[in-house]
Structure formats: structure tokens, C-alpha cells
## 1
Amino acid sequence: MINVNQLTKNFGQLQILKGIDLEIGKGEVVVLIGPSGSGKSTFLRCLNLLEVPTSGEIRFEGQLITDKNYDINKAREKMGMVFQHFNLFPHKSVMENILLAPVKVKKKNKAEAEQHAMELLKTVGLEAKKDAYPSQLSGGQKQRIAIARALAMEPHVMLFDEPTSALDPEMVGEVLDVMKSLAEKGMTMVIVTHEMGFAREVGDRILFMDGGVILEQGSPEELFGSPKQERTRDFLGKVL
Ligand code: ADP
Ligand code: MG
């Protein structure tokens, strides 16, 4: 589904991503871990072209999306992204937040989009909040709405950048549960997280990123059970 070939990203003189190769299969759940500043967010943002890669190639469903002539918006519509901070529109209701992109960008019929939105709200357990405003929701609820909003575009892959890092601890579980059920339904997902228990349980593959490269990767058993690199062991020693 995604094929990354020698991806680099510079900010000014600094090379932040130093040549990343990665293949992600349909339905795979890939979890990206690593120290702060290692380039995890930059990598996710390059995947959906929120950042323009400096060099290298990204293919998405066979299309070379890093090609100059490729319409970036086409790829973005098929890649849902959920951030640490929920970025809901504060002056729009939950329903309006969810409907915005399908109706404006995908030109979906409003009644149909609304029906789909209700199904998504059910999926995240928040049907009752459809007319609420973001300020009336808890952090965990906002993040679940942000997930529903991303799903409303019917993405083929979901990218998550530390979706639970800004939440009070008691709300982390409800968001992880939604992500877990998405994974079980076969959604292709790339997740940056510090929730190692979740990574171990839900991830098909764990990537350890350090200094702008994928230093080591493997199944959860391999990576958590017998990390090969000193730096991976060091990192896991601090977070586990
Ligand atoms: P992580 O998500 O692993 O913590 P990031 O991808 O956010 O790491 O950042 C990697 C490095 O790139 C950091 O040193 C950060 O300061 C730098 N960086 C990220 N975004 C920018 C930017 N827009 N301009 C300049 N430097 C940036
Ligand atoms: Mg980050």
C-alpha cells in the first residue's frame, strides 16, 4: 500500500530524515517508536505530503505521489491523520466538524454524509454528542471525534501522531480502544506512540527510529523481547 524509497528531509542545513526505506502492506499496523526529536512526526508528515520530502520516493497504492505532477490532495484524501492536538473547529458542532470534508472536498450528498457520520459516531461511542461543541467535550472525547472526522473521508490508511500524549491518563484507554477496533477491522495504520503496551498488543510491526533513520524493526516480540541494537535497548530501558 505504501512504499518509501530513500526518503530524506532537510530543514535548512539540517538533515532530519536520512534515507528511509519502508514498505507497508494493506491492513498492516505499523507502530513507530523512538526518542523525541528522532524524526517520527516529520516522517508521518512526509507520508501524506504535509512536508515535502527533500529527496526519495513515496508510492501510495502504486502511484508515485512524490512526482511533481501528482495532485497532492488526491493522496491526502485517502490518508486520514490524527494529531496529538485534536484540531477540531471550535465554532462548529461535532456533526459539522465531521461533515465538513466529505461535503466540501468529496462533494458528498449531505444526507448520505450525515448517515455515515452517525455510523462513525456510533463506532467511537459518541452518538449522543453529535450536536455538542468541542469545548463541551473531554480530551478523550475530542480525540475520538477527531478520529471519526478523519474516517469520514473513507481513508485507505490512517496516520496517528501521538494521539494520546495530550490526554489525561484516565482518557488514554478510550482512545486506544477505538484505534484497536479500527485495527481489528483491517484498517492500515501507521502510529507514533509512547504507549508501549498498546504497541505490543496491536502492532504487527514495530519500527524504532533514532537520528532520522529506522535503526531497527521487527515483530513486537522481536523488538521488545530481544532488541538487537544498543540504542534500542537503551530507549526501551527508559520507557518500559
Ligand atoms: P519526533 O516527532 O520524533 O519528536 P520531529 O520529526 O518532530 O521528531 O523532529 C525531528 C527534528 O526536526 C527535531 O530536531 C526538530 O526540531 C526538527 N524539525 C521538525 N520540524 C521542523 C521545522 N518545520 N523546521 C525546522 N526544524 C524542524
Ligand atoms: Mg513528534
## 2
Amino acid sequence: MLSSALLTAARSSRARGLITAVPATRKVVERFVAGEVTEDGVRAVEELVGSGLHVTLDRLGEDTLDRAAAEATRDGYLALIETLADRGLASGNEVSVKLSACGQALGADGEKIARENARAIAEAAKAAGMLMTLDMEDHTTIDSTLGILRELREDFPWLGAVLQSALYRTEDDCRALAHEGSRIRLVKGAYKEPDTVAHQAKSEVDKAYVRCLRILMAGRGRPMVGSHDLRMIRIAESLARENGRSADSYEFQMLYGIRAFEQRRLAESGATVRVYVPYGDDWYGYFMRRLAERPANLAFFARSLLSR
Ligand code: FDA
């Protein structure tokens, strides 16, 4: 119930106005977001890379309804990639891109605009020796996102995508995308979805996650296990062993600020671990989804408001 209300609020401009206006919110946001400007993201990358982790950077923003904002997203990524390359932090690291921030919802031309903005980012990533993954948003965008993935992979075969186990369709998508060269980040799904398209019970989402993991681990692509759930991590390790996978043929991914100890423990055990580092001033939607994932975060948020 609570989680569903938070996910509804994540898309409400009224709730956005109220929550972002409270100064104490910032303190809680800092736990999940590296900072508001590129330099903050780069500083977080330096620290994580220094401790043996890999990163994927998200320049925060989503649901853009204006062409100039979509171009600003593209330019922000281009500036980020250039800064990382100048500091020797680009190689082997990644950017995560939301197509809705690149203009996907801009009417009839939206898909084309998003694809061309994403293409420009992928070209810069390639030149800098970086990777790129397309984040997955709500279910109405999936066909479009996978279509853009297919087209861009013709020029950037290392381009990755995200699949969400909450959705009924995802096992089929995993089968279609378990091929050689494919990079798929499997997550449980962070959006509020109707029961016509998605499992509603957490236990069903978890079981589906394991079924999807089985498909990806048995496939020929690179599974990217995007979860903080220790059970899923153990199952992924055991499926990797069962399928004779070497440690460098798959990776674990976790969000900045969540289970940092486990991130380091896995990396020290020889696994590849990539931390998803969000930065930027448009943190509202991202922050609300993190609150919705865990009621304890909301209690922490409420305490920080009351302690002012
Ligand atoms: P689960 O929700 O069961 O949590 C397991 C445990 O992890 C919890 O008990 C808690 O200890 C810890 N935990 C989880 N979330 C927490 C939080 N917010 N705060 C504190 N602790 C927390 N989704 C999507 O729809 N599209 C996308 O593109 C992405 N991209 C993405 C990238 C990466 C690298 C990750 C790790 C996740 C995403 N997600 C995502 C989010 C994903 O769908 C999902 O909502 C979260 O990862 C939470 O699910 P878990 O698998 O961690 O399990």
C-alpha cells in the first residue's frame, strides 16, 4: 500500500513540489545520490574505482517533454564522458541512460529523437572506451526501448539493456536476449505496474527473477545481476558455477548507497561488481523509487524531517 502510494507520488508534480521544497529532504537524498553536479559524480567514481569496484553513471532525469531538455541530457552525458576520459576513469566503466530523458515521449518523433540522442552518447562512450546500458522504465516504453536497443546494437554491439522480472513478458525477453554479445541487467522492477502486465506479490517477482536468471546464466550473453537481495546473489553464484561460467563472464550490480559492504565483499571474492551512481539535480523520481523499495527508508526520512 505504502510503496504503491510512493510510486504514485513519484510521478506527481504536486508531490514533487512539496517534497523537494523541504530542506531536510536533501540529507536523505545524499544517501542515494552522489551529488547534484558532474564533479560530484566523478568524485564518487574515483572513490569506488579506487576500492576495486566498477561503476555505471546515471545523469538523473526522466520523462522529458521538451526537446531542449532532451538535448541537454545528451550534452550532459557527453560532458561527463569527456571529464571521465580526461581523469583516466572512463575505460571499463559505463553510463546508464534513460530514453525518456532523451526525448522518447516527445510525440510522434519522440522515438527518433531519443534514438539519435542515445546514439550520440554511445558514440562518445565508444571513443572513450566506456560501455552503455539503456535503463528500463515503465511497461509502456519497453517495446520502444528494445526496438532502439536492436537498432543501436548494429553499430554498438556492446550496448546493454535492463529487463524487469516483475513483468510477465520478461522470461520471453530474456530468451530473446540471451545471445552472444548481449549484456542484460536483470532487476526486479521499480515501477508501479498493473496486474494485467506484472506480478503484484513480491514472492512471485522473486520466483520470476530466479527463472530469468536461469535463462540468462545458461545463455551466451553477459548477465548483469542487478539486485541487493542476498538470496538472489547466492543463486546467481550457484547458477554461474552450474553453467561453467568464469567470474569475468557475468557481473553483479548494486545501487550507490545500498549494501556497500556487500559490494566490497563480492569484489574482494573475485567477482566483478558495478555500482550504479546517480547524480544530478533532477533526483526526485529516483529518490521516491528508493523510498518505495524499503519502508525503513521512509522511517529514516520521517525521522530526519522531525529532527529539524
Ligand atoms: P529487494 O527489493 O527484495 O531488496 C533486497 C534487500 O536489499 C532489502 O531487504 C534491503 O536490505 C536492500 N534494499 C533494496 N532496496 C533498497 C533501498 N531502496 N534502500 C535500502 N536497502 C534496499 N529498476 C527498473 O525498473 N529499471 C532499471 O533500469 C533499474 N536499474 C537498476 C540498476 C541497478 C544496478 C540496480 C541494483 C537496480 C535497478 N533497478 C531498476 C531497481 C530494481 O528494479 C529494484 O527496484 C531494486 O534493485 C530493489 O530490488 P532488489 O533486487 O534489491 O530486492
